[in-house]
Design a protein that fits this description.
Blueprint lengths: L2 E4 L5 H9 L3 E4 L5 H7 L5 E4 L18 E4 L9 H6 L3 E4 L5 H17 L1 H9 L17 E5 L3 H12 L3 E5 L5 H7 L2 E2 L2 H7 L2 E4 L13 H6 L4 E5 L8 H10 L2 E6 L18 E3 L8 H21 L15 H22 L4 E10 L7 H12 L11 H7 L3 E7 L7 E9 L3 E9 L3 E7 L2 E6 L3 E8 L4 H11 L4 E8 L5 E8 L5 H9 L3 E8 L5
Parallel strand pairs: 1-2, 1-3, 3-4, 4-5, 6-7, 6-9, 7-8, 9-10, 10-11, 11-12, 13-14
Antiparallel strand pairs: 13-15, 15-16, 16-17, 17-18, 19-21, 19-22, 20-21
Helix pairs in contact: 1-11, 4-6, 12-13
Length: 529
C-alpha cells in the first residue's frame, strides 16, 4: 500500500480521497526541515500547500518518494531542481482554486475602483463622507491581463461581461484562444501604455521576476490601478510605492507580499492601497477542490502511473497510462540496449515513432528511452530527470512521428550518435504488450528481451555460431533463445542470445577471443523505472 504524508493543513477531503483509493495517509503538519526529512524516509508521496518548504535537505533521505503534490498552483516552496534530480514528480492543482482566485482579483478591482475598504471604515466610524469617495466605473475601461492561463482566462471572461476592453500579454496564448475569449493580444509595452487597470496572473520565473519595476511603471498609463493576486515577486514593491507617491499609479490592490505573514510592508499606510492576507484561494469551495484534485492526481499516479498537471515531466492522463505502459517498457529497453553497447560519449539521440505509437502521447516515451540509454553509465537516472541530464551533457534529443506504418503496425526506432559511430535499434510490440527487438544497425532480427542477454557481432563465417554455443555450454551457461541476423552473405552478422543466468567476465573474454567475433557484450534488463 503506498503511503502519503500530508504536511500542511488541508480540507479533510484530501485524506478521505486517499483512503478511499487504498492509500495509507499520515497527517503531520508544522514539521521542521529535519523532521520532514525523517518523515519522508518511508513515504511514496508528499502533499503540501504553501507553508511547508520542500528543500534539497528535506529530500536527501527520501529514497522511496515518487511524487510531491502542491494543493494549489504556485510551487515556489518546492525546490524543483532538487526534486527533479531525485527523480520525484512534482504536480500541482491549477484548476481547483482558479475560479476563487479570479473572483478575488475582480473583487479587489471593484474595491479599488470604488474605494470600498476606506469608505466602509469611514462610515462605520460615524462619518458620512459621501463626497470624499468619488470612484471610477469599470465599464468602458481597458483591463490589461498579464498571464492568461486558467485564472487569467476566467478574469478575462468576467471582464468582457462587465463591458471592459480586455488586452492580454501572454507569449504562450494562441490567437485562436484569444479570439475565443474576446481579448486582444498585445506586447507588454503596449499593455502598460493602454491599461487603466492591470491584473497579474503569470507564474514566477526568472523572466517574470520584478517584471513590474520602476522602468515598467514609468511606461504605464498615468493613473493606472494595479491588482496582484499572483506572486509578490512579480512586482518591485519599493518601485510601486514610489509610483503611488508620485501619482503615476492611482491605486494598488494586493493579496501577496514579499514576506508573509506581512506584518509590515512598504505599501502599507496609504489610503490608495487595498491589502488582503493572501486570500486568493480562501474559500471553502476552493479548499475542497484543490484537496480533492491533488489527492485524486497523486492516487492516479501512485496506483496507475497517470501523471496529470506535472511540472517537471510530461503529463500522462488516466486514459493514456494503460496504453502507454507497454510502449514505455519498450522504449526504455531499446534505450538500455543502445546504452549498454555504447562505449564512447553520446552526442545525439533521435527517436522515430511509426504507425500506431505515433498517434499516442510520445513525450513520456522519449523520457523512458533516455532513462534506458543513460542509466548504464550514470547513477540515479529516472524518467523525471533524464531529459535534464541529457541537456546538461549537451546531448541533442529529437523525435519524429510518422503516422503511416511501415513493415510493422507500430515501431519505435532509436538512433544514437557517439564520438565514433552511429547505431540504431528498433522494436515493436507482439501480442499487444510484448516488446521485441526487430532491427539493430539496419540488420533485421527478431529477439525477445529478457533479464540476462548476450549481444554478439561477428563475421558471417561458417562455424562461428557453433563455437559461441560450445563456449557457453562449456561454461555451464544455458541458452533460452538464440536469434540471428545478417546484413548480407559473408558480411556483418549478429546474434542476440537470451540466457538463463548471467555470465562472468572470463566467459566474455573467451567469447571475444573466438575467431571472427568482432564484439561481445553481456546485457542486463530490469523492469521499467
Amino acid at each position: 500500500m503506498p503511503k502519503v504524508l500530508i504536511a500542511d493543513k488541508l480540507s479533510p477531503r484530501a485524506e478521505e480521497t486517499f483512503s478511499k483509493r487504498g492509500i495509507d495517509v499520515d497527517v503531520r503538519t508544522g514539521l521542521s526541515e529535519p523532521e520532514l526529512a525523517a518523515a519522508l524516509k518511508d513515504c511514496d508521496g508528499l502533499v503540501v500547500r504553501s507553508a511547508t518548504k520542500v528543500t534539497k535537505a528535506a529530500l536527501k533521505n527520501a529514497d522511496v518518494l515518487k511524487v510531491i503534490g502542491r494543493a494549489g498552483v504556485g510551487i515556489d516552496n518546492i525546490d524543483l531542481e532538487a526534486a527533479t534530480s531525485a527523480g520525484v514528480v512534482v504536480m500541482n492543482a491549477p484548476s481547483g482554486n482558479a475560479t476563487t482566485t479570479a473572483e478575488h482579483a475582480l473583487a479587489l478591482m471593484f474595491a479599488l475602483a470604488r474605494q470600498i475598504p476606506e469608505a466602509n471604515s469611514s462610515t462605520q466610524s460615524g462619518k458620512w463622507e459621501k463626497s470624499k469617495f468619488m470612484g471610477v466605473e469599470l465599464s468602458g475601461k481597458t483591463l490589461g491581463i498579464i498571464g492568461c492561463g486558467n485564472i487569467g482566462a476566467i478574469v478575462a471572461e468576467r471582464a468582457v461581461g462587465l463591458k471592459m476592453r480586455v488586452i492580454v500579454y501572454d507569449p504562450y496564448l494562441s490567437a485562436e484562444r484569444a479570439a475565443d475569449l474576446g481579448v486582444e493580444m498585445v506586447d507588454l509595452t503596449a499593455l502598460l501604455a493602454r491599461s487603466d487597470f492591470i491584473t497579474l496572473h503569470t507564474p514566477l520565473t526568472d523572466n517574470t521576476r520584478n517584471m513590474i519595476d520602476a522602468k515598467a511603471l514609468s511606461k504605464a498609463k498615468k493613473g493606472l490601478r494595479l491588482i496582484n493576486c499572483a506572486r509578490a515577486e512579480l512586482v518591485d514593491e519599493q518601485a510601486l510605492a514610489d509610483a503611488l507617491d508620485s501619482g503615476q499609479v492611482a491605486g494598488v490592490a494586493v493579496d501577496v507580499f514579499s514576506i508573509e505573514p506581512a506584518i509590515e510592508n512598504v505599501l502599507f499606510g496609504r489610503s490608495n492601497v487595498v491589502a488582503t492576507p493572501h486570500l486568493g484561494a480562501a474559500t471553502s469551495e476552493a479548499q475542497e477542490n484543490v484537496a480533492t484534485q491533488i489527492a485524486e492526481q497523486m492516487s492516479d499516479f501512485l496506483l496507475s502511473g497517470a501523471a496529470t498537471n506535472t511540472v517537471n515531466m510530461p503529463s500522462v492522463s488516466a486514459e493514456e497510462a494503460p496504453k502507454l505502459r507497454p510502449y514505455m517498457r519498450l522504449a526504455e529497453q531499446l534505450g538500455s540496449f543502445a546504452g549498454q553497447v555504447t562505449e564512447t560519449g553520446i552526442e545525439e539521440v533521435s527517436i522515430t515513432f511509426e504507425g500506431l505509437v505515433a498517434t499516442l502521447n510520445t513525450r513520456p516515451l522519449v523520457s523512458a528511452a533516455l532513462v534506458g540509454l543513460l542509466a548504464p553509465q550514470l547513477e540515479r537516472v529516472h524518467i523525471v530527470n533524464a531529459p535534464t541530464i541529457a541537456r546538461e551533457r549537451n546531448i541533442s534529443v529529437s523525435e519524429t512521428k510518422n503516422m503511416k506504418p511501415g513493415d510493422y503496425q507500430t515501431l519505435i526506432r532509436l538512433s544514437v550518435t557517439t564520438q565514433r559511430r552511429r547505431r540504431s535499434v528498433s522494436g515493436t510490440l507482439f501480442g499487444g504488450d510484448k516488446p521485441r527487438i526487430v532491427e539493430v544497425n539496419g540488420i533485421p532480427i527478431e529477439a525477445e528481451v529478457g533479464r540476462h542477454m548476450l549481444y554478439l557481432r561477428n563475421n558471417d563465417i561458417p562455424g562461428t555460431i557453433g563455437k559461441v554455443g560450445q563456449t557457453l555450454g562449456d561454461a555451464g551457461v544455458n541458452i533460452a533463445t538464440f536469434h540471428l541476423g545478417r546484413a548480407e552473405r559473408r558480411g556483418d552478422a549478429m546474434a542476440i542470445i537470451l540466457l538463463d543466468e548471467p555470465i562472468g567476465g572470463d566467459v566474455l573474454e573467451r567469447l571475444g577471443e573466438l575467431e571472427n567475433v568482432v564484439q561481445v557484450k553481456a546485457l542486463s534488463f530490469d523492469e521499467i523505472s
